[in-house]
Design a protein that fits this description.
The protein is of the alpha/beta class and 320 residues long. Helices cover 39% and strands 19% of the residues. It contains 12 helices and 11 strands. Strands 1, 2, 3, 4, 5 and 11 form a 6-stranded mixed beta sheet that branches. A 5-stranded mixed beta sheet has the order 8-7-9-6-10, with helices on both faces. A hairpin with a 2-residue loop joins strand 1 and strand 2. The protein is globular. The relative contact order is 0.20. Keywords: Signal.
């Protein structure tokens, strides 16, 4: 919770310092006729399409020189976009709803990554040790479950799975751990379960862990998990650039969805996933359009779990 709140507080400060509008927009530099665009990403499977799209020239053919910079998580990217350090960011929808809830003027321009929608075959799951007595999500009532960030999408997703299975989500003890720290914590018995995504999902399964549910699948059909976003100021001052970026990222998403072998190859260029693990990964889906109905469900759950101060204005979240 501290990390999430600190990130939103930093974003709010960046917004204020930048004059309540972000310092991006008309200040985007152009060299040789190409806009210089920096995008904040995370070194995980989810953002493979933008790395693949850059390699394929989907951005350069639209006069965009793309620089990709990685951060620890989507919540940490929000302040960098608000300050103008990045022109575009990648973040999960709960972080974006939290940012809007705090009054930060950002807009989603494209889907980023989605669940496969298939129970038992998704890129995120709650896992337990192979010899654990925990069989289904309702057994997690009163147990310690690791999530990567408190008061964020993992929080909502775990509580929802417990609730849907007939358990008491109020009694679960969520423990904040970075994804890479979850496999040893689970193996060492420091937590009873962990909500992991790839590649930690494949790592834990290879070590003998057992999945009990595909959390994103429980949350909503074909859930849109994360998206790409810009400031309202950039959208207003350079709509043509935002349109070109949106076209390029959506071409990248469609290409990645149709070429999983190339996705697995590009992972070697920006992640530390070991080569032996890459063929075993369950890849997410990369549809072009945001599943707005699924994001609405995410907002309703975040409101009922008191992550948000009020019901989100979803019409204000999207650029289109």
């Amino acid at each position: 919770m501290r990390r999430a709140l600190a990130s939103i507080a930093a974003a709010t400060l960046a917004f204020v310092v930048a004059g309540c509008g972000g310092s991006s927009g008309s200040e985007v530099k152009t060299e040789g006729g190409n806009a210089q665009v920096t995008v904040g990403t995370i070194p995980i499977v989810d953002v493979a399409p933008i790395y693949l799209g850059k390699e394929k020239g989907f951005f350069s053919k639209r006069n965009i020189d793309l620089t990709l910079k990685t951060a620890a998580g989507g919540a940490a990217i929000v302040p960098s976009v608000m300050s103008g350090e990045y022109q575009v960011g990648f973040s999960n929808f709960t972080s974006l709803l939290l940012a809007r809830d705090k009054g930060l003027p950002l807009k989603v321009v494209s889907n980023g990554v989605s669940s496969t929608g298939v129970q038992g075959k998704d890129f995120g799951a709650i896992v337990v040790a192979g010899n654990s007595p925990i069989k289904t999500p309702k057994d997690l009532s009163g147990k310690r479950v690791a999530v990567n960030t408190l008061k964020n999408i993992g929080d909502t997703a775990v509580r929802n799975s417990i609730r849907k299975d007939g358990g008491d989500p109020a009694t679960v003890k969520l423990v904040e751990l970075p994804f890479p720290d979850m496999p040893p914590a689970l193996a060492g018995g420091r937590v009873d379960a962990a909500f992991v995504v790839e590649p930690q999902l494949s790592q834990t399964l290879a070590a003998g862990a057992r999945p009990i549910t595909s959390t994103y699948v429980d949350l909503a059909p074909n859930l849109s998990v994360a998206g790409y976003f810009v400031t309202e100021k950039l959208l207003a001052s350079d709509k043509d650039l935002v349109t070109r970026f949106t076209e390029a990222i959506q071409e990248s998403l469609a290409y990645a969805d149709a070429h999983p072998d190339e996705v697995r190859q590009v992972l070697t260029s920006y992640t530390k996933i070991t080569p032996d693990l890459i063929p075993k990964l369950t890849l997410p889906k990369w549809p072009v359009e945001v599943n707005k109905e699924s994001v609405a469900t995410l907002g309703e759950l975040a409101t009922s779990d008191k992550l948000l101060s009020k019901a989100p204005d979803l019409n204000a979240l999207y650029a289109d």
